[in-house]
What does this fold into?
Amino acid sequence: MSLHETVPHIPVLLAEVLAAVAPAEGTVVVDATFGAGGYTRAFLAAGATVHAFDRDPDAIAAGRLWPEVADGRLILHHRRFSEMADALAEAGVAQVDAIVMDIGVSSMQLDQAGRGFAFGQNGPLDMRMSQDGASAADFLNTADESDIADVLYQYGEERQSRRVARAIVAARPLVTTGDFAAVVRKALGHRPGAPKDPATRSFQAVRIHINGELDELNAALASAAGLLRPEGRLAVVSFHSLEDRAVKQFLREASGATGGGSRHLPVVAAAAAPLFTAVSRAIRPSEAETAVNPRARSATLRHATRTDAPFSGPASDRRAA
It folds into this structure.
């Protein structure tokens, strides 16, 4: 039976990720975003031991049924991946051979209407990856109009964010994903049959905001430099421009390709030598892959190799906001 038949979703850019991180017998790999376990299953099949992280309790509960847990080759951490340095230290692991991050919402989450991540099926306006804390409905029904507009503009790159925010406040309370999508479509004059639903940008923005996704990514990228052994591999798959921009800029700075910094990115203390080398260009799915898995269309992989330069930041107790 093939890998694709044994997992409930198709891992994006799987062959390219495997080539980038080279899992093998005896290696220790971190799957920072376990989800349905597509990458982890491939790493285990190559003989690696995997430390897998996910803040979603459903993902961890499903993973605990895997036989590799009992064998000790799959260690599950019900933690945010921004906390992986502390979690690994608690497990007695100082360095690892590879770290893989598949950023954003998982197919498993998107396909469950009750999680409220998508508008293809009507469901509660939730969007919480960890299933606790404030939901999308809480934010949209209580936040100031200006705050909503800022979120839509910053995280959804919605040029008409103020118009959409005004419509959201006027339509309160919003209860379901259908409510939210309908308000956005009406505000932007959506025509049925148009190639892209305008609600997509607003859903992305609110999801990123309530889950603190960019803060999580930035903290995890900085932690990776401290966790990878010399010659260790970092691979990150992203799905929209904000994520990819953060990954690209981090690798440019950590590899010494630029001296400039960004207030949106994790601060890495200056090193005597670059922290990463062999930084790849953007790798995108082939036409053959997107034909089989349309969700892969927006995916971008970037990878790099850790040098032996000492890592002196960020602080080990750093937390995502």
